[in-house]
Specification:
Elements: E1 21-23, E2 26-28, E3 35-40, E4 46-51, E5 56-60, H1 65-74
Antiparallel strand pairs: 1-2, 3-4, 4-5
């Protein structure tokens, strides 16, 4: 008896597509993120807190990888648009 795999010729998603993302051993769906923020403790511990509709999760994030990913995903225009005018770099400098 021959064993066959699923027929993917009608699928529009690539074979390696997943809604889940893994960063710093934290598994989540970016579509479900409602808000996020980062904190750095006095002792140097860096964390990113991710808020989902039913709960929030604080994740150790020593290199801000999770925060940077969420910032790019949720604010694709870039950090320049999020900074106050006096901190934002001038265009062309």
């Amino acid at each position: 008896m021959t064993i066959t795999g699923p027929n993917n010729k009608y699928s529009t998603a690539p074979d390696n597509y997943s809604e889940f993302v893994v960063i710093n051993n934290f598994v989540f769906k970016p579509k479900q993120v409602e808000a996020f923020y980062r904190e750095e403790a006095v002792d140097g511990l860096k964390t990113t807190t991710v808020i989902f509709p039913p709960y929030k999760q604080t994740v150790p994030d020593p290199e801000w990888r999770l925060y940077d990913f969420l910032l790019k995903r949720k604010h694709p225009m870039g950090m320049k648009d999020l900074l106050p005018k006096e901190e934002a770099p001038e265009v062309g400098t």
